[in-house]
Amino acid sequence: MAFWSSTPLPVLLGLLSLLLLHPITTTTSSTAGIRLGIVRRPSPDLPVFREAPAFRNGDQCGSNETDLIHVSMTLDANYLRGTMAAVLSMLQHSTCPENLSFHFLSAHDAPELFSSIKSTFPYLKFKIYRFDSNRVRGKISRSIRQALDQPLNYARIYLADIIPTDVNRIIYLDSDIVVVDDIAKLWGVDMEDKVVAAPEYCHANFTQYFTDKFWSDPDLSKTFEGRNPCYFNTGVMVMDVDRWRKGGYTQRVEEWMAVQKQKRIYHLGSLPPFLLVLAGNIKRVDHRWNQHGLGGDNFEGKCRGLHPGPISLLHWSGKGKPWLRLDSRKPCTIDHLWAPYDLYRSSRHFLEE
Q1: CA atoms within 13 A of residue 89's CA, in its CB half-sphere
Q2: Could you tell me the CA-to-CA distances from 66 to 78, 87, 100, 171 in Å, in that order?
């Protein structure tokens, strides 16, 4: 799907909403076993979701282990509604939805979360892995927003250690996204021997991600010598986990977290140590794969519009989350593009009978 900057924003939003509600496909994949009744509540502490349609592979899809597309996300009760919407969006727009294999990371024992996902997506290939919060105990520094300080926000650093060793590549996604294109296109990126592939934003003021203390210390700031560092968002990454493991990148990131505890060299959570290790040395991916910042800034979460250019993935990074703004009946215009994927029981959208 391509939406260009010459299109007026109201028209653009209207067209994109129609496409999300009535996606156009040229594949032979079919949708079967649609049941829209309310599923049984897995836990009194979790929201209730409708059962999603059973998206099936087309005839051209392979069925071998090598045909799998591995996707990792975190599982948290506060963001579960976003995770469900993200999974639905990927299945709905995938040519080979049965080839998607999800690896969920949870900070707690997760029988209730497992039940919630299984009842919502009965046909989904997925596993839930326990992320031990003790791995980051004493390593997290307070940031500008409390949500960024949660241990689970750092789980992506340890992803290569948690998932099975036979998984060589994985797509890591935040829970506040929806995908409006075939995720296989992102999966197929040529990594060119890089550890991470992601959209880069070289027009952003890179210096703002670190404190004056960092830039004034020649021993610290020289880490970027020989690189042209640019900002990239760690909420959408393709990771070569084999290279990550062999290169000891978990330890490299942890070393910068230790420096942060001593000298306070940045203000955000898990993003800056990724930048310190990898910025200027990643595989650049088209910006269409992370239309980020839709949740506004980290303080007020004010409404923002779409950036110019084509869109494959919408990302509500920032303080404002679409499900919270919709529930408050004070949504931003952009939040209506998320709503069609919301499987929450009381939501009024296209899946309701």
Answers
A1: 27
A2: 34, 21, 11, 15
Which residues lie closer than 8 Å to 270 by C-beta, 6 or more apart?
148, 153, 154, 156, 157, 234
pTM over 0.90: no
Structural contact between residues 105 and 75, judged by C-beta atoms closer than 8 angstroms: yes
Query: Residue 344, by phi and psi: left (phi above 0), alpha (psi -120 to 50) or beta?
Result: beta
Query: Do the Cβ atoms of 67 and 164 come closer than 8 Å?
Result: no
- Section 249-263 average pLDDT: 94
The answer, yes or no, to whether residue 343 has pLDDT greater than 60, is yes
**Quick one: tokens of 71?**
């996707």
Range of the domain at 300: 67-341
Q: How many domains does the chain have?
A: 1
pLDDT at 301 (0 to 100): 75
- Residue 230 maps to which CATH number? 3.90.550.10
Go through 230-240 and write b for each residue having 16 or more CB atoms within 10 A of its CB, e for each that does not: bbbbbbbbbbb
Note whether residue 1 is domain-resident: no
Cβ-contact 62, 99 below 8 angstroms = yes
**109, HSE (Cβ side, Cα atoms, 13 Å):** 1
Best-predicted range by mean pLDDT (63-67, 145-149, 288-292) = 288-292
Tens digits of residue pLDDT in 84-115: 999 999 999 999 999 999 999 998 877 899 99
239 SS3 class: strand
Would you say residue 158 has pLDDT above 80? yes
